[in-house]
Amino acid sequence: MIAIGDPCPIFQLPNQDGELVDIQTIIGEQNIVIYFYPKDDTRGCTIEACSFRDANQEFLDLGATVIGISADNVDAHKRFSTKYQLNFSLLADQKKEVRNLFGVPASLFGILPGRVSYVINKKGVVCGIYNSMLDPNGHIDKALALLRTL
Hints:
The chain is of the alpha/beta class. It has helices spanning 43-54, 56-61, 74-83, 97-102, 136-147; strands at residues 12-14, 20-22, 31-36, 64-70, 89-92, 116-120, 126-131. The protein has one domain: Glutaredoxin (3-Layer(aba) Sandwich), CATH 3.40.30.10. It has 5 helices and 7 strands.
């Protein structure tokens, strides 16, 4: 399990447009907020995604890029992104390899994939972790608060 002070795991995944996103091209350029979520177009995940969308300019102003990751496929991400006009990348981790690299725990007795956000600084070091299945808006608030201190 990734902890504060650990380096960000290196990975590549396709986004909602089928383009391969390589995290190494972002590290060193921007702060990164990576949030893992259970499933596209479900109540809590929609609330969280729309909150990240609505706060995206503030993240950009703080020098951060937002990336959402779930096990949904590229087509599901495209539909979800289009439906809610999301303005950040959603990455398809269908084999849950990146989720496992980060050590994101499952919730509800291991039934649902967990909802965890990671704030990674420009040097590629994890400087914040927020784990809450029931407080999707808290992920945005905690990430912004931490980014304001970097």
